[in-house]
Amino acid sequence: MFCPPIMITTLCLCGPMPETPTFTPEVANKEHPGHAVTELRTDVGWVGPSQTFHVIVSITPDDDWHVYWKNSGASGAPTEFETNAPDGFIVGEPIFPRPTIFHEPEGATYGYGKKASIFIPITAPEILTDGQIEIAIHTHWLACNGICIMGEQTKTLRVSTNMFRKGPPNKDAQLVQWEKALPKPLGSLQDGKCYVVGSTLYVSGVTEFRPIQFIGIERKGVRFDSPSRLILPQSTFQFPISIHLDFYATESKTLNIEGLLLLGSNSDDPSYVVKTEVDIAINQHKSRGN
Fold first, then answer.
1. What is the pTM of this model?
2. For position 252, what pLDDT does the model report?
3. Residue 92 near residue 121, CB atoms below 8 Å
């Protein structure tokens, strides 16, 4: 009970319960100017003080078209978001679901040929009033099908707020399915670990899923070869991934290594976020000593 029971009822102190928003998805699989369409919803009934929730952007490409992951690969362009939230609300980095690997003439690209739901975390301020807020999200994408077309769309979502109580999580079947497609931390995989030796990233763990694949996220100073694929008879694996590190490309003291480990070949099979860092000073010292 969040409201102190002092001579008045909980209903009177906390105000009327915010209504659970309804969501009306747009009709998909019809041609749109950017060959894709977006829709928004949240994963909570309403938002309370200091509560972290997600605005979920679902992007649906037209039939036979595809859009791209946050790393498009050998060609294409990443799907990106501009989020406009009220003052005091903190917007986090978008969480993309597991992408599909497309093998194209230019090389491997990563994206989505059907509806993909990206979760954008937002944290409310400590002090809220009862009412509603508006959150606008402008989505940029590149849709391809032989030719490529830039697309963009802005959608606005109204979210109820409560002065005292945090909102309950929504747990409908659609949301559960979307959450299942999100990558998990590597540490949640049995014996999941990663480390860098020289120019090789090693990812290890235990799984019965096959094949095991890895796609890297390139950034300044870090480059990967084509997506790697591993097939082993035993459940324990150690996956070596070639990386190219340029210690002079950044003024930071470390290079951040990040990628996605894909288990199995289906879009709803598990995937795991691989993150580690390389200390530039230590590696430069090793290089001078060799």
1. 0.84
2. 80
3. yes
Render the burial of 258-282: b for 16+ CB within 10 Å, e for the rest: ebbbbbbeebeebbbbbebebebee
CB contact at 8 A, 257 and 275: yes
- Sign of the Cα torsion 95, 98, 102, 108 reads positive
Low-confidence ranges of the chain (pLDDT < 70): 1-31, 281-290
Nearest partner of 272 among 205, 181, 184, judged by Cα: 184
What CA–CA distance (Å, rounded) separates 206 from 226?
Answer: 24
Q: Output the six-digit token pair for 81.
A: 């978001």
220-257 core/surface letters (b: 16 or more CB in 10 A; e: else): ebbebeebbebeeeeeebebebebebeeeeeeeebbeb
Contact predicate 35/143, CB 8 Å: yes
SS3 of 241-263: the string is EEEEECCCCCCCCEEEEEEEEEE
Q: Cα–Cα distance between 38 and 114 in angstroms, integer?
A: 12
In what order do the strands lie in the sheet containing 52-61? 36-42, 52-61, 116-123, 90-91
Domains of the chain: 28-180 (2.60.40.1250), 184-289 (2.60.40)
Backbone angles phi, psi at 154, to 5 degrees: -110, 130
Longest dimension (CA), the chain: 77
Rounded-to-integer distance, Cα 118 and Cα 155, Å: 14
Chain segment 82-101, per-residue pLDDT in tens? 999 999 999 999 999 999 99
What's the confidence (pLDDT) of residue 158? Answer: 97
